[in-house]
Amino acid sequence: MEAGLLSSWLVEVIGSAAAVLGTLCWLPQSIKVIREKQTAGISLAANLMLLSAVSLWMIYGLMIGSWPLVLANAVSTALVLIIVVMKIRYRQPQRKSADTG
After folding, report:
1. Of the N and C termini of the chain, which has fewer Cβ atoms inside 10 Å?
2. Distance CA 32, CA 26 (A)
3. What Pfam families does this protein's entry cite (predicted)?
4. Is the pLDDT of residue 46 over 80?
């Protein structure tokens, strides 16, 4: 294999591995939230920001015609959206503090 071809191949392997891991990392959290219907330890703000980021990456992928980028971020968007919807749906009511009576 030629040096340029090998480095190009390595770049593709590293990029593909990052896309797969970055996409699938949200699968366990989504499954856990669906099964347990408990979201107290999950930050809504952080997940809304993440949802915005992966949605924008998906739109960017569409604009430049990068289908791997679109696909990876479409899956990520769906998984993070599940987490956000479940967080809102199963939000714990605010407790009144002892000072407010």
Report:
1. C
2. 10
3. PQ-loop (PF04193)
4. yes
